[in-house]
Amino acid sequence: MNQISWLAVPTPDTAPEGVRKLWSKAEANLGFVPNVFRAQALNGEQFLAWWNYFNLLVNREGHLSNAERELMAVVVSGLNRCVYCAVSHGAALRGYSADPQQADTVAVNWRHARLSAREEALCALAEKLTLRPAEMTQSDLSPLREAGLHDPQILEAVQVIGMFNMTNRISSALGFIPNAEYHAQAREG
Q1: Side-chain half-sphere CA neighbours of 181 within 13 A
Q2: Which of 26, 33, 102, 183 would suit a FRET pair with 146, their CA atoms being 20 to 30 Å apart?
Q3: What positions does the domain Carboxymuconolactone decarboxylase-like occupy (predicted)?
């Protein structure tokens, strides 16, 4: 296996039992174990805590659609130039949107993508909160409300954006490499 992190990566023999169970579940559901699961498993308890919150925000039924959460993930990851997350969540966005061109465009510059007013409002929030968080004001929520988002949806959007900013920094700081499988996912459509 090629290097997937600049730190040591546990093997199935050295990873904690809870981590191995998650790896097995990922293998069964995805057909591979995401490299981020392997790389962060060095601190197994911390990884599992991160995964539980990440999974709650991104993969479970929530106030926003899966496509909307992945859209924000791709915007944040593109702005932060996080290769791992832009590639892996670009694959997820392609799958949810069934529009590979839109997902690839969003990763580079969301303003050039064909988006609804609601999607544009979410992307604008993701951009400002990522690049200029200290400049956030109450008026930044107005476009979201005008696009039909309610307070629980806005809170979830902010939490997802915050999660991806944190995850981007971890992945970039430690040189996480995306799985090859992500590059080909959901390309037909």
Answers
A1: 9
A2: 102
A3: 46-127
Are residues 27 and 80 both part of a single domain? no
Instruction: Say yes or no: 75 and 136 in one domain.
Output: yes
Question: Which is nearest to 43 in space by CA: 88, 12, 8, 13?
Answer: 8
Q: Which domain holds residue 54?
A: 17-59
175 and 86 Cβ atoms separated by less than 8 Å: no
pLDDT for residue 187 is more than 90: no
Sequence-distant (6+) residues with CB within 8 A of 44 are 10, 15, 16, 18, 19
**115-145 tens-digit pLDDT:** 999 999 999 999 999 999 999 999 999 999 9
**For the residues of 28-88, what is the DSSP string, one character each?**
HHHSS--HHHHHHGGGHHHHHHHHHHHHHHHTS--SS-HHHHHHHHHHHHHHTT-HHHHHH
**Other beta carbons within 10 Å of 100:** 18
141 & 92 share domain: yes
Nearest of 2, 3, 181 to residue 92 by alpha carbon: 181
Mean pLDDT of the 70-87 span: 97
Q: What is the mean pLDDT of the chain?
A: 95
Residue that the structure tokens 């106030």 belong to: 63
How many residues make up the chain in this entry? 189
